[in-house]
Every structure is written in structure tokens, then in C-alpha cells.
Amino acid sequence: MTQALKFLAFDTSTDMMSVALSNGQQTWHHHGVGGANASAQLIPTVHALLSQAQLQLSELTALVVGQGPGSFTGLRTACAVAQGLALGANLKIIPVDSLKAVAEDARQSLAPAQDWHIASVMDARMSEVYVGVYAWHAAISQWTSVQPLQVGPPEAMAAQLSRLKLHQLVLAGNGFEVYKERFPLQQFETSGVPIRSITAVPHALALLRLAPALWADQQAIAPEGVQPLYIRDKVAQTTAERDAIKLANANANANANASTFTSTPPQA
Questions:
Q1: Which of these, 85, 82, 102, lies nearest to 94 by C-alpha position?
Q2: What pTM was computed for the model?
């Protein structure tokens, strides 16, 4: 009899902390506030789920960690905790890009037997968004990456995505909501049909669904090889950069307000 795969997965790349545990088809999960709390709450939450499942860390097949992109502090927390737990229990780690987890989270609300292109668009702060584009192949139940992960202004990322002209495109994440005025969904419409957008997050349950295929594909690595996937190297903006962004936003708002007024020529 084949032994059931057992995975512990967690992601702290956003303001949420998501942790999940599987034993075959049975799962346990916690999804709550993360951010600054993640460094203090992640390990106790892991132990609580292990206790609920009556499992020891050493009994697991592997750990699965969302390696980013996302919050710099959150990524360092997740990778450091994964390394510590894995080293102590002699386990390997499956690192997964968090934007793929967002795409997988969104896919659960779509027709399962259909192929999809899903673009994950997540708020990257600093007036930018992270973008990852993936293709879901229903016949083989596998994901492939369509293009390298990107970060940039919402307008530029939206324009780049629209130029790809992908079939069955779905937008997933939160970036298009955070930057509604700067990430216009109308440009993705085809024949007047609105683009489908799904609010999604890098949920640990999504990581668990990805884990078996990644494990079979030998994507698990030694703990010391796990590193945060930053995409963007800068942690914060300078004062001058913040002032420039405020000025640009103020000018954009002024232009938008001006465009709402039209003049009527005087009647002869």
C-alpha cells in the first residue's frame, strides 16, 4: 500500500499568514493576520496544526514554502522558519513562487476541465504591482509559466498583459483592486465581454495542491538552498522618490478631474 504524502505548507508573503498541513486527502489549515505578527506566530501555529493532526514534524514528506515575491520581512521569516524546521527534522523543502499559489487559489473557482491563462497581479507597495502569468493545462493537470515574474507600475503591467492577447485570460490577486484607476480592466475586454477577475491570495491550501506534482518532479531541495524570491531589490523609497510619486499622482488626479468637465460653445 502506498504511503500517503504528508506536507506542511506556509506563506507569509502578504499581510496574511497562511499555514496548512496535509495527510493524504485530509487537511488542516490556519489563515489569519500575518505581517509583523508572522515572525512570532508562525512556529506556534505550525505546532498547533501538527498537534491537531497528531503528526510529528519528522513524519512529513516535505515542507512547502511560498518564497515570494512579496513582503521582504515576510519572505525572510518564511524561508528562515522553513530552513530551521527542515534541518531539525531532516526534511527537504519545496519552494514555490507565491504568485503561482495565487493562480492556483483562483483556479479553484474556475471550470476544472478547462485550460486557462491566469495572470496573478498582487500589490507590491511603492505604487507597483507584481505580475506572474501561468497556463493551466487541464488534460495533464499541470501549470507552466508564460513569462518571467515582473514588477512595475500598474499601467505598464496592464499594458504588457493586454499585448499578450492570451486566450481564456483570468486576472487573479488584489493588485487590480488596489490600483483600480491605474489598472483598467476595460483594455482586456474582447467583443464587449468583461474580463474575469478573481480576488485571490497565496493560500497555503493552494501550496498543498501544488505539492504532490512538484514532489514527483523532484523539485524538493535541501534547506540551505531555499532563498527569498524578491524580484525587486529595493526595500523602500527615498524621500525624493516618495515626493515625486505624490506629485505624479496629484497631476494625474488633476488631469482626471479636468477631463470630466466639457465646455459648450455659445449659441449663435
A1: 82
A2: 0.85
